[in-house]
């Protein structure tokens, strides 16, 4: 790869799933079994720098200034290996990634992380991939990352076994709808069970997993229509159902996976209380205890204040629809 830039950095935002992805139809190619829809979030950013270096004998991966664990490094190296195969070279890389929010706390840092890594590493390797191919590359590492390649409102369809090219696509740009997502952090610390493990356990052992597979596309369709129509009440109701249904699969798996903490329910009460007082505010939780509340921009200050006053909420962020991945060589 002489004569070409062998270094690049990229910046990607996390996303919130409005229609949830939970479960794979192909574990090896990491293909989701249900369609998901997300909003990319402007505040939760990962920045990743990759340099392919002829002097390195092994890949060197640093996350937030520390050496990556063996498990974390293995996922990064699997992505680098896919890129090396495509670029047809063997150089090892120095990867350094910074999250501007807590990692592995159910705040979807793997989405922004693998989206930034796919963009930075493929550019550093001299590949010029389309957004669609970048999305498929990111998806192979973490399916939610496929959505973070695009800004605004994004759809990742369900796929079948062997669907190695499955990619996300943008439904609408960030300016389409001035929504806010208020992230309320409850307890800190890494999540109890990683999403991949949680999904596989749900698939193998939850008696409700089959129902989830048949119902999830219905909520995704309703959410897609609601985005088009800018209909927050319809979107919010379907998002809450999608959320509770996937958590139902996790809770009823063996052994059971409870991602919630007592503070999660307290924060949910706050959101339901706001709704009783006429505010269109809707809650969702991912594979962690934090509560994320979707509302109109005009209600954001009120929703944030209510969550800030909720016992057990340690911090809140107000985020809005954000951009897709950006690369700097
Ligand atoms: C609950 O994308 O982290 O946040 O593909 O195994 O890496 P892998 O899973 P991941 O799962 C995200 C699950 C979720 C819902 C969602 O973001 O759609």
Brief digest:
By secondary structure, the chain is α+β, with helices and mostly antiparallel strands. The chain has helices at residues 70-87, 109-124, 131-141, 143-148, 195-205, 209-229, 232-251, 262-276, 300-308, and strands spanning 7-19, 24-26, 31-32, 36-53, 60-63, 66-67, 92-99, 153-156, 169-172, 179-185, 282-284, 291-296, 315-319, 326-328.
Structural features, described:
The structure is a single chain. The chain has 329 residues and is an alpha+beta fold. The protein is built from nine helices and 14 strands. The strands form three sheets. Strands 1, 4, 5, 6, 7, 8, 9 and 14 form an eight-stranded mixed beta sheet that branches. It has a four-stranded antiparallel beta sheet with strand order 11-12-10-13. Helix 6 packs antiparallel against helix 7. It is globular and about 60 Å long. The mean pLDDT is 95. The chain binds ligand DP6. Ligand DP6 binds next to helix 4 and helix 5.
Short descriptors:
329 residues; alpha+beta; 8-stranded mixed β-sheet; binds ligand DP6
Strand-helix topology:
Layout: E1 7-19, E2 24-26, E3 31-32, E4 36-53, E5 60-63, E6 66-67, H1 70-87, E7 92-99, H2 109-124, H3 131-141, H4 143-148, E8 153-156, E9 169-172, E10 179-185, H5 195-205, H6 209-229, H7 232-251, H8 262-276, E11 282-284, E12 291-296, H9 300-308, E13 315-319, E14 326-328
Ligand DP6 is lined by residues 17, 20-22, 30, 36, 108, 110, 142-144, 195-196, 286-287.
* Low-confidence blocks of residues: none
Helical fraction: 25-40%
Bound molecules: ligand DP6
Seen as an oligomer or otherwise, the chain set is single chain
Q: Main sheet, how many strands, which sense, barrel? A: 8 strands, mixed
N-C termini distance = 15 Å
Provide a count of the helices.
9
Q: Strand portion, in percent? A: 15-25%
Rg over CA atoms, rounded to whole Å, is 19 Å
Count all strands and give the number. 14
Shape: globular
Mean pLDDT comes to 95
Order of helices and strands: EEEEEEHEHHHEEEHHHHEEHEE
């Amino acid at each position: 790869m002489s004569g070409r830039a062998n270094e690049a950095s990229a910046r990607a935002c996390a996303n919130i799933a409005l229609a949830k992805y939970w479960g794979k139809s192909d574990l090896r190619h990491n293909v989701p079994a249900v369609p998901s829809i997300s909003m990319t979030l402007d505040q939760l950013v990962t920045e990743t720098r990759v340099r392919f270096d002829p002097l390195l004998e092994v890949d060197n991966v640093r996350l937030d200034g520390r050496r990556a664990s063996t498990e974390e490094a293995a996922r990064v190296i699997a992505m680098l290996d896919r890129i090396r195969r495509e670029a047809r070279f063997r150089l090892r890389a120095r990867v350094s990634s910074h999250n501007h929010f807590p990692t592995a706390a159910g705040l979807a840092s793997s989405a922004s992380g693998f989206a930034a890594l796919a963009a930075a590493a493929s550019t550093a390797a001299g590949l010029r991939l389309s957004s669609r191919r970048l999305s498929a590359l990111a998806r192979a590492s973490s399916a939610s990352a496929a959505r973070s390649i695009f800004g605004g409102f994004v759809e990742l369809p369900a796929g079948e076994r062997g669907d190695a090219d499955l990619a996300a696509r943008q439904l609408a740009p960030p300016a389409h709808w001035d929504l806010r997502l208020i992230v309320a952090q409850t307890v800190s610390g890494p999540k109890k069970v990683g999403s991949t493990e949680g999904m596989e356990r749900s698939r193998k052992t939850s008696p409700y997993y089959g129902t989830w597979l048949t119902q999830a596309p219905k909520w995704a369709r309703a959410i897609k229509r609601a985005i088009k129509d800018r209909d927050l009440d319809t979107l919010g109701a379907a998002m809450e159902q999608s959320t509770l249904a996937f958590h139902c699969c996790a809770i009823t798996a063996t052994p059971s996976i409870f991602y919630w903490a007592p503070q999660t329910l307290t924060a949910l009460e706050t959101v339901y209380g706001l709704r009783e007082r006429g505010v269109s505010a809707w809650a969702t939780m991912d594979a962690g205890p934090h509560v994320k509340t979707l509302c109109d921009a005009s209600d954001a200050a009120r929703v944030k204040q209510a969550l800030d006053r909720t016992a057990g909420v340690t911090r809140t962020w107000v985020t809005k629809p954000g951009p897709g991945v950006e690369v700097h060589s």
